[in-house]
Amino acid sequence: MQATTILSKALAAALSLIVVAALGCQARGGPEALSDSDSEASTSGGPTTLGTTTSTVTTAASMTGGVSMGTDTSATSDGLCDNDGVCDEDAGENLANCLHDCATCDVDGVCDETHETPAVCPADCSATACELDGVLDRLHEQCDDNNRANNDACTATCSLNVCGDGFLNEDEGSAEECDDGDLDDGDGCDHLCVRERHTVFVTSESYRGSMAPAIGDLVGLELADAHCDELAASADLPGSYRAWLSAGAGSPGDRFGFPEGFAGRFETTTGEVVADGWEQLTSGALAHGIDRDESGALVDATPVWTNTTIGGAATGADDCDGWTSGDVQAAGAHGTSGEVDGGWTAGGVLPCSLLSRLYCVQVAE
Fold first, then answer.
1. Which CA distances in Å does 19 have to 6, 26, 143?
2. pLDDT per residue over 81-136, tens digit each?
């Protein structure tokens, strides 16, 4: 009997030790201690899970031009962010839980990851991904029109087509007339992507190959240029003008001062588009013939002194001795006003004793 009592007490003591040990383990680990497999899952990369009981938010970092765009918090189990592009504060949407809908924009040239996205602030944030599926990813795309065209409002990189990007936006209603890839003025396409206008006209006056009558001591090409400036001033046309005329090493391609790739628009004095850019002006295919004089009066087809090729270079030696001679034995090359093919500048040869007109072109200042 005594032995039985002793055994019972020993068993009770052992049970007490087991209980104490178990309670000690719980205190050290707590009821939420992670198992080995849980711990491995929590540090294995992939989506980060926030919270344990009421809601789960999956975050995915996005980048814009090397600048972090914050996190995509649109997928919430409590439905706070519906990704409709409208920040519904009454429904609980805010910058912290719904950058998709609640992003704002402070244009300063720097993409602020805390509140700006490419879709809302394209001036600061570049597109960093492009699905071209027709569905706008607000965290990564500025636009998405589901095509690879670069000549519409949304380019093939899901970036808005803006002035200075080198892509002409040809959509109806677009304000772009040109886009030469920069925002510089003076190169024919200005900082608003509008073509700079340059007036061209055929003179109302006719001249022999000597370019008489004289203006001061000027001769040859300089005298012809002076006639153009004088007639332009008489008609209150702005700018400086040069004659489309070549002699020796001097030609429009060398004398006019237009930069390579000049994109300005050449127009008659009544506004008809003769050519968009130097390339078209020297292509042998004008959009409209040069058939108006300095005052806007229509000029019928008539010979015009040029000695200039379609490409704006000197044709040869048929230049009336450098445009100083009105001798019948000397010859000058001419074109014909109003023509739209190469004949406008390269049409034949006439004796320098005959009267012909000049083309005058407003040049770069």
1. 20, 11, 65
2. 888 889 999 888 999 899 989 999 999 999 998 999 999 999 999 999 999 999 99
Instruction: Identify the CA nearest to 272 among candidates 254, 299, 246, 247.
Output: 299
Task: Tell me how far apart the alpha carbons of residues 343 and 356 are, in angstroms, rounded to a whole number.
Answer: 15
User: What is the secondary structure of 91-108 as a DSSP string?
Assistant: GT--TTT-HHHH-----S
Q: What tokens does 168 get?
A: 């002409």
Q: Where in the chain is the domain with CATH 3.10.100.10?
A: 197-362
Record the tokens describing residue 339, joined without a space.
Answer: 């023509």
Dihedral in degrees, nearest 10, Cα atoms 293, 253, 246, 350? -60
Amino acid identity at 232? A
Q: Are 196 and 262 in contact (CB under 8 A)?
A: no
Residue 201 Cα distances to 144, 229, 311, angstroms: 46, 11, 18
Per-residue pLDDT tens digits for 174-233: 999 899 899 998 888 999 999 899 999 999 999 999 999 999 999 999 999 999 999 999
Q: What is the pLDDT of residue 79?
A: 60
Dmax of the chain from CA atoms?
156
Q: What is the DSSP string of 285-314?
A: --SS---B-TTS-B--S-EEE--B-TTSSB
Reading the block at residue 167, the tokens are 């892509």
**Interstrand relation of 197-202 and 67-71 (parallel, antiparallel or unpaired):** unpaired
pTM of the predicted protein model: 0.64
């332009």: which residue's tokens? 232
What is the architecture, at CATH level 2, of domain 197-362? Roll (3.10)
Q: Summarize pLDDT for 32-82 with one digit per residue, the tens.
A: 333 343 433 333 333 333 233 332 222 333 333 333 333 333 344 356 788
**Cα–Cα distance for residue pair 73/96, rounded to 1 Å:** 8
d(CA 179, CA 215): 41
